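Many groups now describe folds with learned vocabularies. In that spirit, our science desk offers one protein's residues alongside their backbone shape tokens.
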Amino acid sequence: MSKFSKLLAICTTFIIATFAFSVPISQAVSQAPGNIYEGIDVSQWQGGINFEQVKNAGIDIVYIKASEGTNFVDPYFERNYENAKANGLQIGFYHFVTAQNTQQAELQARFFASVISGKEVDCRLAMDFEQLEGLSASQVNEISEVFLSTLTSLTGKESVIYSDLSNAESVFSRELASRYPLWLAYYGNYTELARFNTSWSEWIGLQYSDTGRVAGINGYVDRDKFTSEILLSDSSSIPQTPIPEESNNTVNEVTYVVQRGDTLSSIAQRYNTTVSELVSLNNIQNPNLIFAGERLVIRRTSGINASDRIMYTVQKGDTLSSIAQRYNTTVSELVSVNNIQNPNLIFPGERLEIVTETQKQEDVFDTNHTIYTIKPGDTLSQIAREYDTTVSQIVRLNNIQNPNLIFAGERIRI
């Protein structure tokens, strides 16, 4: 071989070796070994749940949203935990992370641990970190590492990372994946996952639908499959962790960056708020016109006093009157609670907060007033004459925004 040929061979070998080491090793993701358990994950989105029916429908595991950010407790957390446990379901908890730096990550881990203190848990604690706008991949991994290591230190329990396929492929690191397994959100044919390359070689949880139907739950619920790796070897109570002092001083607001394809209805659904509230907070002139990149302030109701409220998703053909009749409330109350500017204008997909009978009990059993159900053709003037009162008094008692606009089936105090 000539000197030139030898030199060419050496250079070629060097180039090939350099290229091989510069390209990440392909790692297809597949199902982890072990038994498969049918599961769901729930939050205040689902409202009241009949867990006896859920159990009878073949569900084995339920992941329950416990908290979000630094001071938001899901208003259905306690009742979901107690009722799921009473019906023999295996339970996991998750926290929705909103941290933008490692200091906030540590605080949110401590807050999550304080919320679930004293509870018995069967499954790994889950980090749901998907609000990544404005963060680099390295920042996401630093925040995740601090959150998860702090959580493990406080609770003594193993964790799992919830992620969609895109972030599992391009954001979460191989180092993080080596220590915390994957609960993957993927709504396609999960047998095809082996052709995708992620930081994980396998999943132990798979959220395969966000439009599932299960007996005992009104409306859609996330459906999951879990392998036995999701289960903890130690399901003892979580150690007591005090509520971080900082959590009591944090305003319960987030700033959301509008993504391509977002609507106010979809954003309201995601954050358990209403279109009307978003419009009011952000001074939006046209609810049908928002732009990718636009920043919206979102305020959530604290979980402390919200346990007797439910969130209803407006369906095509709904009116405030029909919703009020269905939930034994009034149009005026729906308008007041949801800050609705035009009672004749609601949107399919919009989320409305509805006060349940538990909260209205004081009004229903108010011995000082009569509860009257409005009939077709009624006016406040006519009702006021019949009950020897005034329109002004009825308006004040029932917080009616427009005295000329009342609805058949609506219940008012007189």
